[in-house]
Amino acid sequence: MTAKKLHVKTQYYNMPEGEVFALESGVKLKELKIAYETYGELNSRKSNAVLICHALSGDAHAAGFHDGDKKPGWWDDMIGPGKAFDTDKYFVICSNIIGGCKGSSGPNSISVETGKPWGLSFPIVSIKDMVDAQKKLIDFLDIKKLLSVCGGSMGGMQALQWPVSYPEMVVSCIPIATTYKHSAQQIAFDEVGRQAIMADPAWRAGDYYKKGHPSAGLAVARMIGHITYMSDDSMDKKFGRILKKEKLGYEFTSEFEIEGYLRYRGDSFVKRFDANSYLYITKAMDYFDLQKDDSLSKAFKDVKTRFLVIAFSTDWLYPSYQSKEIVKALKMNGIDVTYCDIGTNYGHDAFLLEFKEETKLIKHFLRSTHRT
């Protein structure tokens, strides 16, 4: 029997006129818009709310179908009736981050004051700013406490920031395939992607919205990023040295299957993402550092949240040792934490693919958390 499709709509929160949103940089935004979606029903005690935080290229559409969609939201295998985030039990929320390009305030959104896209006049944002904006949404929904906050990759950074910023609001936290700060190598990959975009003549110092997007630069940035999402093993098994034609052509064309795949990934990405947002989001990730006075342990000093930390064996973008550092800091504070390193050959992308293992872990963790 085929499961019934879940149809959803994106909703929007607009900060009331007269309020200001203070950013970590010191800049104060006079306007703030957040795109979000919800799945399931909030119970009478408002004790079953779960916030899902998305990764770099994600958005508020985490599950279900919009009218006319052929494909569901980006984590549909994890959100819905009977799934890891069971919408028969939990009220699941996912919002587009500020600085993004899928409905929330960001460089491609229209400023109320000017009537034009913000472009580079949009202020630099941090992971903490993203979480503070989500807090505005949660307050608007009149939810006093979140049963859980979960996210993978950059979503995991937001998940970690939540109990640090709002320790009384978060019952449990599930950071997946993430880190508490970027290493020099991780910053380096982001910088190469940013330079690819800014080197594209069509970028025009961020003022390209009526003149044609820097598609070539953004495509290269995505290609670089996508290489880091896969493992050496998964790439070799999927593509190896397979040629697109029977023989080498001895020319500068896309001759290997992996070359064609990366170009496809780059070309499809530019159709759905904004180049300036890529700059803003990667910079926010690079700025992220939970340490307090050079100590990660001190950052979790006031935290009472339960944790389930998940890593993947072949993730070389956010390797397991970074998750273990988080676990160690939590344990030093006597915090209830469970750690699992899932064996896989998918690399960093495993958090979007290893549904079976993640579901087992998360279902049990949420069940035990919801009882307490």
- Which whole number gives the mean pLDDT? 96
CATH topology of the largest domain: Rossmann fold
Q: What fraction strand? A: 5-15%
Shape: globular
Radius of gyration: 21 Å
Oligomer: single chain
Assigned CATH class of the largest domain = Alpha Beta
User: If classified by CATH, what would the architecture of the largest domain be?
Assistant: 3-Layer(aba) Sandwich
Give the fraction of residues assigned to helices: 25-40%
Q: Count structural domains.
A: 2
Note poorly predicted spans: none
Give the class from helix and strand content and strand pairing: alpha/beta
What string gives the helices and strands in order? EEEEEEEEHEHEHHHHHHEHEH
Spatial strand sequence of the major β-sheet = 1-4-8-5-9-10-11-12
Main sheet attributes: strand count, strand direction, barrel closure: 8 strands, mixed
User: Distance between termini?
Assistant: 35 Å
What does this structure look like?
This protein is an alpha/beta fold. The protein folds into two domains: 11-181 and 291-371, Rossmann fold (3-Layer(aba) Sandwich); 186-283, Rna Polymerase Sigma Factor, Chain: A (Orthogonal Bundle), CATH 1.10.1740.110. It has helices spanning 127-140, 154-165, 184-198, 215-229, 232-238, 257-270, 275-287, 296-299, 320-332, 355-371; strands at residues 11-14, 21-22, 28-29, 33-39, 49-53, 79-80, 85-86, 91-95, 148-152, 172-176, 306-312, 337-342. α2 links the parallel β9 and β10 (172-176). α1 crosses α2 (154-165) and α3 packs antiparallel against α4 (215-229). The model has no long low-confidence stretch (mean pLDDT 96).
